[in-house]
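Prompt: Have a read of the protein record below and flag anything odd:
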Amino acid sequence: MTLADAQYVLLTTYRKDGTPVPTPVWVAPTADGRIGVWTVTDSGKVKRIRRSGAVEVAECDRRGAPLGPAVPGTAEILDAEGTRAVRRAVARKYGLLGRIAVGSSRLFRGSRGSTGLAVAVQE
């Protein structure tokens, strides 16, 4: 099993001063083999990734407790097409709950209210 197949992944981004900020997220595999993450466009993790793409990822439970070792990676903010692909992958992977979450986000935030991220892990 890869991290993209996990139910939840702990995505750790870093503040300017190096302080880690871990966040449990839903993930889905991308077409190019990276880990796709779908998140709110103005979230702190997007701002931190925009500044520095350095991240760590680890499988976790829904509360963010790690279930395995963290691996370093590089995150990239996706364009509109990439974001749509990640939305579709998340909706497919998480079934009815995923479709509700993605649909609600589009309804209340619009198509630009969420952003796709692609994480390449360095295994």
Q: What stands out?
A: The longest helix spans residues 95-109. The first strand starts at residue 8 and ends at 14.
